[in-house]
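Subject: complex prediction, re-run

Hi both,

The earlier run crashed halfway through, so I resubmitted it with identical inputs.
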Amino acid sequence: MTFSRDFICQKFGEFYRNPSTDIPAPGAMYQREFAFLLFKERAMVRHTSVSKISKLKSFFSESVPSDVYHSCAYYENPEADMAKKGWLGADLVFDIDADHIPTSCDKIHDEWTCGKCGFSGRGVTPESCPSCGGVKFDTKTWPCERCIASAKNETMKLASILEEDLGFSGRDLHIFFSGHRGYHVHVEDDAIKSLDTMARREIVDYVLGLGLSVLEGRDKADGSPKKSSGSFLLHDFGWNRRIKMGMQKFILNATEEDLRRIGIKQSVKGMLQNRDVIATRYIEENRWTGIKGVGAGVETWLKIARHVKDLESAKIDTVVTTDIHRLIRMNGTLHGKTGLKKIEFPVERLPDFDPFKEAIAFKEGTVKVSVSSAPEFRIREQMFGPYKNKTVELPTAAAVLLVLKGRAEVVNE
Ligand SMILES: [Zn+2]
Ligand SMILES: [Zn+2]
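This time it finished cleanly. Structure:
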């Protein structure tokens, strides 16, 4: 191992050996598969099971994992091969990661390179390489505060859909900062444990707002195209309610530019002049005609409704939720790409949760590092960087973050 890696391994070891480190046991831990990535071996150790949290903690202290995962699934034999595990059920798990959310700054701090042909670009990593179609990429990303805030915004929309539309209580929702660039939401409830992949896919589609008949532009009864805007009715439940409220918000705040950007060309001025009446009479009371100067037909309202659906749906990673054998990072453990903790907090705390305060694991000491490049970042109240080819003495948490992100090396004095 290099000097920097030794340093990281040593810091992770200190964290896991510290008696005040709190690592909560997941529910029914004896039925879960555990998996580890160790600093020394660099290979994933899978198909292990642990019955007691104290045993797990002493294993962490001795072997020092860079990353710890457990299954969202419950098994009869967690140690057996996949085929012989005996699947008993799984938590419903959502992953919201800045990797999947386009932001105004991702082109500044994120890069990807195709592992097959070397083609590279900036911003969100594509699903396949535009040059050769390859699907493996080397990525260089940054846990940017603005990007994490946009992931949080998606998480708030998800929590609202789960609670208000699907009827889960706040007590059943476990909200976590992932330790890197996003949030996890786990639903542990007997009602969802036995859901298969198809059923979970239905939940995913609902969260994304896919296949909503109200947006199809057809009359339900006979499937014929809508002729008049009078038939564009929105009721007060589920997605209809979300679209109704979203359309009101959109209309009341829209600029001419906003309307044109979503493809509305006619009666723009009339719509803006009559926005208050549209919000109440049209959208709220479902009376879609009769305002002079607003000659918009149903296609126009559908354009707004579809745009609002995009704004109101939650950008979850669909693969994670539908995979009933998924391994997920263990709560309370460190993320091997940042040195930040995965940490749980109550759903009500989402708006003011601060990962750069609350997920910090290393609170003492300073380390001298030579930084190749790093954007500006914050640890608790203190700002650091941007740095370019600079040697600086940083608090341990900042140094660990830069080393793990490949932006710095520890200075060997
Ligand atoms: Zn390629
Ligand atoms: Zn960003």
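Residues 103, 105-106, 109, 144, 146-147 surround zinc ion (ligand 2) (CB under 6 Å).

- K.
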